[in-house]
């Protein structure tokens, strides 16, 4: 499988289903930025800034966040139990069908 489905829940509540490549080694953050979503990614994907914060609303079970990711998420005032840093989620068939909402600016 070299493509997966990623659904983004827009601020209006509308759902946009995107097809993402799995053969380029991209993170979800890189894919969302390339799809013109407003993700700053100030640190370039190093789990240092949390400007790529998303909420995972549905989809397959993700692996546990790394210590660095968990620390950044704990520092966010808008973090929820579904929060993740999109820079730490690799596009792979394991996440096919994931549904995310880009978190509001913190």
Automatic annotation (TrEMBL):
UniProt domain 2Fe-2S ferredoxin-type: residue ranges: 4-106
Gene Ontology biological-process entries: P450-containing electron transport chain
GO molecular function, one term: electron transfer activity
Alphabetical keyword list: 2Fe-2S, Iron, Iron-sulfur, Metal-binding
Cited InterPro entries: 2Fe-2S_ferredoxin-like_sf, 2Fe-2S_ferredoxin-type, Adrenodoxin-like, Beta-grasp_dom_sf
Keyword Metal-binding set for record: yes
Iron keyword on record: yes
Needed cofactors: [2Fe-2S] cluster
Protein family: Belongs to the adrenodoxin/putidaredoxin family.
Protein name: 2Fe-2S iron-sulfur cluster binding domain-containing protein
Organism this protein belongs to: Adhaeribacter soli
Taxonomic placement: Bacteria, Pseudomonadati, Bacteroidota, Cytophagia, Cytophagales
């Amino acid at each position: 499988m070299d493509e997966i489905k990623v659904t983004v829940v827009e601020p209006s509540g509308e759902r946009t289903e995107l097809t993402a490549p799995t053969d380029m080694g991209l993170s979800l953050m890189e894919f969302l930025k390339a799809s013109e979503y407003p993700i700053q990614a100030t640190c370039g994907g190093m789990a240092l800034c949390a400007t790529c914060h998303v909420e995972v609303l549905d989809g397959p079970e993700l692996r546990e966040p790394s210590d660095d990711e968990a620390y950044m998420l704990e520092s966010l005032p808008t973090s929820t139990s579904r929060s993740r840093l999109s820079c730490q989620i690799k596009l792979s068939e394991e996440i096919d069908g994931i549904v995310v909402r880009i978190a509001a600016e913190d």
